[in-house]
Amino acid sequence: MSGTWTVTGKSVQGASHRRRKLPNQDAVCWRSGAEGRVAVSVADGHGSPACFRSGDGARLAVETATELLMEMTEEVPAGGATWMAKELVRRWRAAVERDAAANPLPSPAAKPRAVWQIYGCTLLAVSARRDASGTDRIRMIQIGDGDLLLISGDGSVRRPWPRDPNLLGDQTTSMSGQNAWRDIRIAFLETDDPPELILLATDGYSNSYSRDEGFLRVGTDLMQSIRAEGLPSVEAHLEEWLDETSRLGSGDDITVGLAARKGELRAG
């Protein structure tokens, strides 16, 4: 159906992680639902000794965020972004507690005061839907590093917000923060001129480029490839491209989520 959205994603183990026999600690989740609503989320587990279940934290984060976005109606509760941030953290912590109960820690000494501290991860998520009036309603979520890009039909690329001043060097905000909901950035976009493609990526992608301009061109190139070849073709090559990027770049895990307008795609 013209003007509606479709979603996909891919996560690859980083080249350096393969060499060191470390698991992929990223995660991705996407869904399509009633009334043309779609949602996609990516997360990056911290991988530090203090966050030794961060891969599980990332998996639970993308499942929680995608579910929340798919459940929400157009009527955002009072407090909008604040309610959404608190609800996301509440649900993620509850999922972590269930996971920890089902998979007990090796020793009581390994359990911190709050068990979700060992599940730390970053998160990016987006949902999109075109309503009956032709307005596209897009919701965006970010906590921590990583990139959310909006790519227009003319190839221009922008981010929904400026760089978070709390991200310094390797330091990042996290779902495991004591007051994580305060660090979550949320934007609601209602527009008759939506982006053609929305790209979410963990920081292993942008860190593979020496300059931000080079990374931003990825968004334009993907949009043009989807337009020319169709999303199924791009999806089929995505793992190969990400593997090569990690091998030649950061060596880190790379995870990508894509939300594309169906009306702009060539049939694949």
Brief summary:
The protein is an alpha+beta fold.
Q: What this model shows, in words?
A:
The structure is a single chain. The protein has 268 residues and is α+β, with helices and mostly antiparallel strands. The protein has one domain (5-264): Phosphatase 2c, domain 1, CATH 3.60.40. Helices cover 34% and strands 25% of the residues. It contains seven helices and ten strands. It has helices at 15-19, 54-71, 80-102, 180-183, 203-206, 212-229, 231-248, and strands at residues 5-12, 26-32, 38-45, 121-130, 136-143, 147-151, 157-158, 185-191, 197-201, 254-261. The strands form two sheets. It has a five-stranded antiparallel β-sheet with strand order 1-10-9-6-7. Strand 6 (147-151) and strand 7 (157-158) form a beta hairpin. Helix 2 crosses helix 3 (80-102) and helix 6 (212-229) packs antiparallel against helix 7 (231-248). It is globular and about 55 Å long. The two termini are 14 Å apart. The model has no long low-confidence stretch (mean pLDDT 91).
